[in-house]
Amino acid sequence: MVRSGSMAGMPSEEVDVVVIGMGPGGEYVAAQCATAGLTTVGIESRLVGGECPYFGCVPSKMIIRAADSLAEAGRVPQLAGSSTVTPDFTPVARRIRDEATDNWNDQVAVDRFTKTGGVFVRGRARITGPHTVAVGDREFTASRAS
Questions:
Q1: Whether the Cβ atoms of residue 96 and residue 49 lie closer than 8 Å to each other
Q2: What residue spans of the chain are helical by DSSP H?
Q3: Which of 31, 38, 47, 88 could hold 106 in an S-S bridge, CB 3.0 to 4.6 Å?
Q4: 55 and 27 in one domain?
Q5: Helix or strand or coil: residue 1?
Q6: Are residues 74 and 114 in the same domain?
Q7: What is the pLDDT of residues 29-47, one digit of tens each?
Q8: Does the global pTM surpass 0.85?
Q9: Measured between alpha carbons, how far is residue 66 from residues 70, 80, 90, 95, 99 in Å?
């Protein structure tokens, strides 16, 4: 259902739920709402999934694992022979880019959300009223939650 919106006569799209910020919590809540059959809009200006998969948790664990491997290899002379260890984090950076972050492309996460029935909107949200949220030239009115 579409009704007249508050943005310069722009029609507002009626939905059940608007989730601003599709970090781990927002992504989960939006997917649960959509899966439950609520018309759900998820809005994110950066990457769906938040900091953890792209900049924090996952890449840092890959760096730590590589550093642990170097440290362990450096202990070989004390334990069982000889070894030469030459640190090179180029392979780690490549793995982070290719395997962990898909070159910082969140399309897989966006698709995962939209497959639940949600609508994804990329952009910076502005709260324009008690139940209205604008993103670019679109405005959403949430009847159940925003």
A1: no
A2: 24-35, 51-54, 57-74, 76-79, 90-95, 107-114
A3: 47
A4: no
A5: coil
A6: no
A7: 999 999 999 999 999 999 9
A8: no
A9: 6, 21, 11, 11, 15
